[in-house]
């Protein structure tokens, strides 16, 4: 069911560029997505709310696609879903997603050189379900070295929001019980609401667990969604890992 590792490796990898974006429907703007990945030299692209159905595999040249679709029995309308595009030149393989209550996720392992393995998780926390920090805990327990990035639908000052919502309070309280975590978030809003244009939130960010590398995040005003894509540049040189505050 799950693929075997792609054996082509970038032996001298000094940096990694991660894209993350809630698409609100991937196929309708796929030409722009391909251009975005090319223009910004993305290595791994984590996407949420793909709205893909089983059998729909929009491929990006020189990338492998892994996805988990939301299967709706009672509705023909597609929604939800997560995916990860990863360069074929990287050593990678998909691993099973644990059973989750209010969260959707796609997971891959990536080998850096001959020793380091990092788990990447594209996450979408559903808006119309009770937020469950146990889902986040399960994902963090998939591996020792984990990067979770995506749409958490949670706001808190810990990741640079002006206001805290209930989900954000729950998530921040949970993260503060963990060791060796850091939040990688922008200072700029990642989501806007057409119905309330003055409400700008940072809902899209990353959680690094036991990742001893420096990282910085930029929000780009590209692609067509109510969320803006973020690009996380990771310098593959050791630094001190900080705990979440």
From TrEMBL:
<keyword id="KW-0808">Transferase</keyword>
<dbReference type="Pfam" id="PF03372">
    <property type="entry name" value="Exo_endo_phos"/>
</dbReference>
<dbReference type="GO" id="GO:0003964">
    <property type="term" value="F:RNA-directed DNA polymerase activity"/>
</dbReference>
<protein>
    <submittedName>
        <fullName>RNA-directed DNA polymerase from mobile element jockey</fullName>
    </submittedName>
</protein>
<dbReference type="InterPro" id="IPR005135">
    <property type="entry name" value="Endo/exonuclease/phosphatase"/>
</dbReference>
<dbReference type="InterPro" id="IPR036691">
    <property type="entry name" value="Endo/exonu/phosph_ase_sf"/>
</dbReference>
<feature type="domain" description="Endonuclease/exonuclease/phosphatase">
    <location>
        <begin position="21"/>
        <end position="227"/>
    </location>
</feature>
<keyword id="KW-0695">RNA-directed DNA polymerase</keyword>
<keyword id="KW-0548">Nucleotidyltransferase</keyword>
């Amino acid at each position: 069911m799950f693929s075997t590792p792609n054996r082509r490796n970038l032996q001298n990898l000094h940096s990694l560029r991660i894209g993350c974006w809630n698409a609100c429907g991937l196929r309708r703007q796929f030409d722009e997505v391909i251009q975005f990945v090319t223009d910004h030299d993305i290595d791994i692209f984590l996407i949420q709310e793909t709205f893909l159905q089983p059998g729909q595999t929009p491929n990006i040249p020189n990338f492998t696609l892994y996805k988990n679709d939301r299967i709706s029995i009672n509705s023909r309308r597609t929604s939800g879903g997560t995916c990860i595009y990863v360069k074929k030149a990287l050593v990678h393989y998909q691993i099973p997603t644990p059973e989750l209550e209010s969260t959707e996720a796609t997971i891959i392992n990536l080998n850096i050189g001959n020793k380091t393995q990092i788990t990447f998780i594209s996450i979408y926390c559903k808006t119309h379900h009770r937020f469950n920090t146990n889902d986040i805990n399960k994902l963090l327990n998939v591996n020792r070295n984990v990067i979770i990035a995506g749409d958490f639908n949670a706001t808190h000052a810990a990741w640079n929001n002006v206001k805290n919502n209930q989900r954000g309070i729950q998530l921040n309280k949970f993260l503060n019980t963990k060791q060796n975590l850091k939040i990688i978030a922008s200072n700029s809003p990642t989501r806007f609401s057409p119905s309330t244009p003055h409400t700008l939130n940072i809902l899209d960010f990353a959680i690094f667990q036991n990742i001893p590398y420096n990282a910085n995040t930029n929000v780009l005003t590209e692609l067509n969604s109510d969320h803006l894509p973020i690009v996380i540049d990771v310098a593959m040189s050791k630094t001190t890992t900080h705990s979440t505050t």
